[in-house]
Write a structure and sequence with these properties.
Elements (H helix, E strand, L loop, with lengths): L1 H17 L1 H14 L2 H9 L1 H12 L1 H21 L3 H15 L4 H18 L4 H17 L3 H8 L9 H21 L9 H16 L10 H9 L8 H13 L5 H17 L2 H17 L7 H11 L3 H18 L2 H136 L3 H9 L2 H21 L3 H7 L9 H7 L4 H11 L4 H8 L3 H6 L3
Helix pairs in contact: 2-18, 3-15, 4-15, 5-6, 6-7, 7-8, 8-9, 8-10, 9-10, 10-11, 11-12, 13-14, 14-15, 15-16, 16-17, 17-18, 18-20
């Protein structure tokens, strides 16, 4: 099988370059050949498949993390003192190696037996547990007879419930492994499968509450019996699906539950759910580096049947590598037969793609001939058109020259008129500004003189009456100056809005969005704020901040802060 795998890998690498183009065409046409249900299932589970692809690509990193974890356990075991702690660490190391490295797993199973026999000779549970460790590894390596002999030496009646669960789990696994090596294809009459189902029944009766360890048992029994009237209690399926969806951490138990749930939905014809849970089982196996796997092999087989040959091939190579590393002969034989099928199908696909490529090439050559002929006709007609067009061009040249001269004269006249109109408009606007400023200056000066005279008379009256207290209060009263400034602001606002009708639009166009002013509000109140007054003075040519501050009776900082 290893030779076949090597040859197949070399074939893929060599032929990928030669047939890159037909592969591209096949990849474009492949979705058209998939069934609607399969395409829907693949689309719905695209994220899970992508995650599985990533895990397989990063397989080396997962192995490194597992080896690091094992190294820490070994280091702790080396320095542990108490027998209880040593036994717990040996069990932990066995669990890490159980579906990862059978030799190391067997070593720590033997080590657990040694510690148990030496330190806990009167503990039947530890003795049985160590035997079950050895039984499991023997079964995976094809030593079924030896595993059965050790299993039958254990009396389950002497065990407590947790150890009975482990006993029946191991028993059903051993006999199902033996059935895989049997030549019969009828599981219903296979004696080893009957034995396995008997252990499954005992396991199920032992766990009436249906914990995570036994949820899969009814489904497995029905599927392995290959019953024509396949039926599983919907409540069992509901509990199994709830267990799978609620326990999403990577563990062998969760992978087993997801696997059998996928098998159930596959039997029911629900491709979408079958693909979801089979992919989940494969992901869990990959994350814990489980090399005693079946889910990804069945997933690859289904993908191959749907036409996803590349992904199926990658998954099968991964499965083959894992089976070889674990030396599970049953898995190796199964994967080897599937790899042969994939190899034959790929060769056939290459031949078919090559045939299609030749057809495409013939069609392309025919199309090229047609295009060349059409190009010749077009070139000939273009020559005729050029001759006719040249004669027409010569006859129009003189007319175009005369029209061009006329157009130039008209254009020059229009430009002169436009320049004159623009100059008149600028002059008119400048005159309006000057007139408004002159009027504003005279009016403000007159109002200021009158206000000063009234104020002088008022102060003189109080002075003559020797009412010095009121006179002092008058001089300190800020309201005296505020009223003139209010009048000044009102006159200023009215004058600016009169001589600059577009003042608000110009201000908004040069301001940030939060500083913009609603023109309708200004039209109704006819009153400007400090920011717009500053903008208006700058428009009049007053640029110095000190001058603006004096004219508007504000601080220079206010002028800086309100610069538009």
């Amino acid at each position: 099988m290893k030779t076949l795998q090597t040859k197949l890998t070399q074939f893929f690498l060599r032929e990928r370059l030669i047939f890159a183009f037909p592969l591209l065409i096949a990849a474009m046409l492949l979705p058209l050949s998939l069934h609607a249900d399969s395409k829907k299932a693949l689309k719905a589970n695209k994220g899970l498949l992508t995650r599985l692809d990533s895990l397989i690509r990063n397989h080396d990193k997962i192995v490194m993390a597992k080896e690091k974890r094992i190294g820490l356990l070994k280091e702790e075991y080396k320095h542990s003192v108490t027998p209880e702690r040593k036994f717990d660490l040996v069990k932990a190391l066995y669990n890490e190696y159980q579906v990862y490295n059978p030799d190391s797993a067997m070593f720590y199973a033997d080590e657990a037996s040694r510690i148990s026999g030496k330190c806990f000779p009167d503990d039947p549970h530890k003795q049985a547990e160590c035997k079950l460790f050895t039984i499991f590894i023997n079964a995976t390596q094809g030593f079924g007879a030896e595993a059965v002999e050790v299993l039958e030496s254990i009396d389950p009646a002497s065990l407590s419930t947790p150890y009975k669960v482990l006993y029946y789990q191991t028993g059903q696994y051993i006999y199902s492994c033996r059935a895989l090596f049997n030549d019969t294809v009828d599981f219903k009459s296979d004696p080893w499968m009957a034995k396995s189902n008997a252990y499954r029944d005992s396991l199920f009766r032992l766990d009436p509450n249906r914990t995570i360890n036994t949820l899969w048992v009814p489904v497995a029994r029905q599927i392995d019996n290959d019953a024509d009237d396949y039926h599983v209690d919907p409540e069992v399926i509901s509990l199994l699906e709830k267990g799978v969806e609620s326990h999403t951490d990577a563990s062998r138990e969760n992978a087993i539950n997801a696997y059998w749930l996928a098998r159930h939905y596959g039997r029911m014809g629900d491709d979408e759910k079958m693909l979801r849970y089979m992919t989940m089982a494969s992901i869990y196996d990959a994350e814990i580096e489980n090399r005693e796997i079946a889910a990804i092999t069945e997933l690859a087989t289904w993908l191959f049947e749907q036409g996803d040959i590349d992904r199926a091939y990658n998954y099968l190579l991964y499965s083959s590598d894992q089976a070889n590393a674990y030396r599970n002969r049953a898995r190796m034989l199964n994967i080897s037969s599937i790899l042969g099928t994939v190899h034959d199908a790929y060769l056939k696909a290459i031949v078919e793609r090559d045939k299609r490529l030749r057809n495409y090439l013939i069609a392309l050559i025919a199309l090229s001939v047609i295009i060349l002929a059409a190009t010749g006709i077009i070139v000939r007609e273009n020559r005729r058109l050029r001759t006719t067009r040249k004669a027409l061009t010569d006859s129009n040249t003189q007319l175009e020259k005369s029209l061009e001269a006329r157009d130039q004269a008209i254009s020059a006249l229009e430009d002169a008129n436009a320049a004159l109109a623009e100059s008149n408009h600028i002059l008119h606007e400048a005159n309006k500004v000057k007139q408004g400023l002159v009027a504003l200056s005279f009016r403000l000066a007159s109002e200021h003189i009158n206000a000063l005279d009234d104020y002088r008379k008022k102060l003189l009256k109080k002075f003559k009456a020797k009412n010095y207290t009121e006179l002092g209060a008058e001089l300190q009263d800020q309201e005296l100056i505020r009223d003139p400034y209010r009048n000044f602001y009102a006159a200023f606002d009215h004058t600016m809005l009169s001589i600059f009708p577009d003042l608000i639009q110009e201000y908004n166009s040069s301001s940030s969005p939060e500083s913009k002013i609603d023109p309708e509000t200004i039209d109704k109140s006819r009153t400007l704020n400090t920011r717009i007054r500053i903008f208006a003075l700058r428009k009049l040519g007053v640029e110095k901040s000190a001058d603006i501050a004096k004219m508007l009776n504000v601080s220079i900082r206010t002028v800086y802060n309100n610069h538009a």
